[in-house]
Amino acid sequence: MEAPIVAAAGLRKRYDKHEVVCGVDFTVRPRECFGLLGPNGAGKTTTIRMLTGFAPIDAGTLSVFGLPVGPADVRAIKSRIGVAPQEENLDPDLTVAKNLLIYASYFGIRGGDARARVAELLAFAALADRAADRIPTLSGGMKRRLVLARALVNRPRLLVLDEPTTGLDPQARHLVWERLRELKRSGVAMLLTTHYMEEAAQLCDRLVVMNHGRIIAEGTPRDLIERYVGREVVEIATGDDPGERARVAARCRALGGRVEEVGDHVLLYLDGAADARAVLAALASETLTHRRATLEDVFLTLTGRELRE
Amino acid sequence: MTPGFLGGTLCVWRRDMESWRKYWKASLVGALGEPILALVAIGYGLGRFVDIDPGGAGVGYAQFLAPGILASAAMNAASFEATFGSFTRMTEQKTYDAILATPIGIREIVAGDALWAATKATLSGTAVLLVAVAAGLVRSPAACLLPAVALVVGLVFATMGLVVASRAQAYDFFTYYFTLVIAVMYFFSGIFFPLASLPGWARAVAWCLPLTHAVALSRACAAGTVGGAALLHLGVLVFVLGTSYALAVRLVGRRLIV
Questions:
Q1: Does one domain contain both A47 and A189?
Q2: Residues A293, A195: contact at Cβ < 8 Å?
């Protein structure tokens, strides 16, 4: 098997008395898109900050391209990765093209090489017609695409994406996904954090779910769905009456499968064994929706429904 | 090829320069207006009532004042850029974070930002020099060294400003620095009156201020008396520069790498 691009073992990070990453193990393989999922405060961003040299590691080992992350090799590592941070940090006083040209210079790419690379990236990010515009005139989606293009300026073998589509409208989000899939096909490995389950399902080959600084589940999106929630879900609307909800929940429990009561509806998770048709027939008198189980169901099952922060 | 220390420093400098280019006119008016006003209003206005040269060696007050104003113009230009400017890049714009994701490290970021602030200081100092030469206040050929003096003074105050910026929580913090440190230096570093007129203890304190050495060095170049004393002043400035650069690298690192 090929050497992993990223290997983390027993990774820990503490801020004051609060341990935010408590012993995390994972690997990112060549050409794969690996997802770090979890609610706010789960430790995803801190894990990424350790990997990109922004946060010293307290304990455990972390290597990128086989080099240990630390002062000795940090430049060698950074010259081969691309980082698209969560917060947009483009240079507001420079034009779109200048943002990329200046960033290229940080990697020692200059002159004709730099100009050629910038032209390629502007086309890739669908920003060629905005090359001479300044950053404040761009939309949120354009800024995101430019941040992504900037992360690619050094032709990285690993792309680190921290919530790449947070705050984007659906059109802008789909365009970013399309570009990321294109990059994946070209052989770039990706490490992605997100709390959009649809994003993880669309992009990730494998993923881990983090909660309170620990990895609580690992696998392919399909594996995780089958393992934790089964294939299908029946949602039954019950209105605001708790008595009605309890009645429906009891009825569902009698049918087998896991039952969850949430707000004004009841969820019945059907694993492969349950006969969906029989269950649906038994519940025919209720107002129900029958759908495929999703990563979102896995996520909520594993990390709970209470609000974070 | 990944840039080394010098290459990386120049990359950061260039980023700052390119960002400024759009605003250079407004920026120059601000940087030049004040020192030139001080030279005219105080040098010629107040100077008529001041007998700075009781011995009669022919040094007018404006002539006495000009090298000090040059040094203070360099100090102000560098201090503003390295506090307000660098703080914006360090916090609001997150420019430092963006650069740190590349092979460029904290040392180059601090050096590049300081070099840029010192570049603005050099522009300010040179402009004051041109005005002083045009007004006949500076005649020695050694005055050709004054832009280089402005560069050194700029580097000193830029690295000091970066130390302050690395500890600041908000822009308001700089008010303290400018009123308690920069303004005090402006008035007590021998720009407006010879330090010899101060009592001994005050003179001793004044010689602890970096601007005092900057003014003395600038005056030596303007008067063409560049000798051992001037080298000593330069040595003090280089020492302050080295110390505050090392401190700035450490503190900026501690702020960003957590």
A1: yes
A2: no
User: What's CA B167's distance to the chain center, in Å?
Assistant: 20
Mean pLDDT, rounded, of chain B: 93
Question: What is the complex's ipTM, to 2 decimals?
Answer: 0.92
Average pLDDT, chain A: 92
Same domain, residue pair A70 and A5: yes
Least confident of A18-32, A115-129, A208-222, B30-44: B30-44
Domain holding A261: CATH number? 3.30.70.100
Q: Would you say the C-alpha torsion A170, A172, A176, A182 has a positive or negative sign?
A: positive
Q: Which residues of A touch B19 (CB under 8 A)?
A: 91, 93-94
CB pairs under 8 A between A and B: 76
Residues of chain A positioned with their CB less than 8 A from the CB of B256: 54
Half-sphere exposure of B4 (CA within 13 A, CB side): 1
Tokens, residue B181 = 């440190």
Candidate ranges A148-162, A219-233, A243-257; pick with highest mean pLDDT:
A148-162
Residue A111: is it exposed, middle or buried by C-beta count within 10 angstroms (0-12/13-18/19+)?
A: exposed
At position A285, the amino acid (one-letter code) is S
DSSP A129: G
**Which are the contacts of A202, defined by CB distance < 8 A and separation ≥ 6?**
A177, A181
**Count of domains in chain A?**
3
> What domain range includes position A211?
1-80+156-219
